[in-house]
């Protein structure tokens, strides 16, 4: 070939077909024009060139109908698989996440559904606690959220509850040894809110600025629907809320070290209180109580290793404390008159314990109407069930999220493999 001369090529129509419909066949010359103008037939070309021409002719049989290119199909396939995989994994994990979230929310508030009642400890650093009135005790007393019950300072002689209606003056209403008071008179800006729905609970909110320097014990009662308020004293589920004293700043305590002070959350058994109740629901929990006045009061059983078995409610059957609750022990009376009962572990079944405080009169005789301290100890299985329920619910949330992530990654890898 002379310099400056070019070799002309005639291409098969397949090249246009390739451009229009995206087939994989390359543009292969069907005939070759030499510099002198001669046309060379493919048969005169080398065997390799002839083979390429044959394939090019075979590929020229393009359909008049426009088809989807194969490269485009390979791009759509992984995208479709990805969308399907995400939809399946999210829909399958949505139910476990919702169910687990429901179970977690159910464990946040204690439910009062039996005459044994519940005890709610108000957190020192918190601002609110929650509780529920469960069936059949599904009606709260007082019904007015502005009011609450506290331990009466002295016996009222007559129970006005229900005779004049719950809207009468708070100081005139007494039930089960407790007097009805305005909640905001005890804690400024405190509120009791009832959520919406049949399964909703109550939320008691007390701002930090409203906390007092001494702890208080508030009381609500969950009664049976349709029952008279007069029946609260004998047939209701009491909700005891123990609110600790306001946390003092270091160096602000002016009390004398020689003056014995009772610690917070001590049950004080007096002639006016009648009965004091406490609930033990976890291991290593302690219950502290005192008989008032300490100088003239006697605790029975006197032996520290003994306690009354109160399953029958009589508080008269004396047994070894450790036979009812393993490793439980009671201290001797301390200088401030306080007894401490320690429960390192929970029993295999629910137990009811009882102590009795009696006061010596002037003639040396014991008062017949003794004040009793009832301690309900939950079974270990009940606590572990609640713990496992919360733990299992959390685990299902994590498992469902992991399932969704793994599913998305799997489908993404499959899509990448199809593209490669």
Largest sheet: 7 strands, mixed
Measured by DSSP, the beta-strand proportion falls in 25-35%
Estimated structural class: alpha+beta
- What is the mean predicted local confidence, pLDDT? 71
Which outline best applies?
globular
Enumerate the spans where pLDDT stays under 50 for 5 or more consecutive residues.
Answer: 7-28, 43-66, 70-74, 99-107, 153-172, 251-262, 363-368, 382-390
Terminal-residue CA separation: 43 Å
Give the H and E element order. Answer: EHEEHHEEEEEEEHEEEEEEEEEEHEEEEH
CATH superfamily of the domain at 110-152 and 174-243: SRS domain
Beta-strand segment tally: 24
What is the fold-level CATH name, i.e. the topology of the domain at 110-152 and 174-243?
Immunoglobulin-like
The percent range for helix content is 25-40%
Briefly, what is this?
By secondary structure, the chain is an alpha+beta fold.
General description of the model:
With 420 residues, the chain is an alpha+beta fold. Among the domains are: 110-152 and 174-243, SRS domain (Immunoglobulin-like, Sandwich); 267-377, Immunoglobulin-like (Sandwich). It is built from 6 helices and 24 strands. The strands form 5 sheets. Strands 5, 7, 8, 9, 10, 13 and 14 form a 7-stranded mixed sheet that branches. Strands 16, 18, 19, 20, 23 and 24 form a 6-stranded mixed sheet that branches. The chain has a 4-stranded mixed sheet with strand order 4-6-12-11, with no helix packed on it. It is globular. This is Srs domain-containing protein. It comes from Neospora caninum (strain Liverpool). Residues 243-265 are annotated as: Disordered. Residues 251-261 have a biased composition (Acidic residues). InterPro entries: SRS_dom (IPR007226), SRS_dom_sf (IPR036755).
């Amino acid at each position: 070939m002379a310099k400056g001369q070019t070799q002309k090529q005639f291409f098969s129509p397949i090249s246009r077909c390739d451009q229009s419909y995206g087939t994989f066949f390359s543009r292969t010359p069907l005939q070759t024009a030499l510099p002198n103008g001669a046309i060379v037939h493919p048969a005169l070309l080398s065997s390799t060139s002839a083979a390429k021409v044959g394939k090019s002719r075979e590929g020229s049989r393009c359909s008049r109908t426009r088809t989807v290119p194969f490269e485009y199909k390979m791009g759509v396939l992984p995208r479709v698989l990805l969308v399907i995989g995400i939809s399946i994994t999210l829909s399958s994990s949505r139910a476990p996440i919702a169910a687990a979230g429901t179970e977690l929310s159910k464990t946040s508030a204690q439910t009062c559904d039996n005459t044994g009642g519940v005890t709610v400890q108000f957190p020192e650093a918190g601002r609110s606690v929650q509780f529920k009135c469960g069936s059949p005790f599904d009606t709260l007393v007082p019904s007015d959220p502005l009011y609450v019950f506290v331990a009466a300072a002295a016996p009222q002689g007559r129970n006005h509850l229900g005779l004049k209606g719950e809207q009468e003056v708070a100081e005139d209403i007494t039930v089960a040894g407790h007097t009805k008071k305005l909640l905001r008179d005890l804690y400024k800006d405190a509120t009791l809110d009832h959520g919406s729905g049949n399964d909703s609970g109550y939320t008691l909110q007390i701002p930090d600025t409203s906390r007092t320097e001494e702890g208080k014990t508030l009381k609500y009662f969950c009664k049976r629907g349709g029952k008279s308020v007069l029946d609260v004293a004998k047939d209701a589920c009491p909700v005891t809320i123990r609110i600790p004293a306001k946390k003092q700043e270091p160096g602000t305590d002016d009390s004398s070290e020689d003056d014995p002070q009772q610690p917070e959350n001590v049950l004080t058994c007096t002639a006016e209180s009648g009965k004091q109740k406490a609930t033990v629901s976890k291991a290593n929990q302690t219950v502290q109580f005192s008989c008032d006045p300490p100088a003239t009061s006697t605790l029975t059983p006197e032996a520290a290793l003994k306690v009354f078995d109160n399953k029958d409610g009589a508080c008269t059957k004396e047994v070894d404390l450790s036979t009812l609750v393993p490793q439980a022990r009671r201290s001797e009376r301390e200088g401030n008159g306080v007894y401490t009962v320690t429960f390192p572990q929970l029993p295999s079944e629910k137990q009811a314990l009882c102590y009795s405080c009696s006061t010596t009169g002037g003639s040396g005789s014991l008062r017949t109407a003794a004040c009793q301290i009832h301690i309900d100890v939950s079974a270990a299985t009940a606590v572990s069930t609640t713990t496992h329920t919360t733990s299992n619910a959390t685990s299902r949330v994590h498992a469902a999220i992991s399932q969704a992530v793994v599913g998305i990654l799997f489908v993404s890898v499959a899509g990448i493999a199809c593209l490669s």
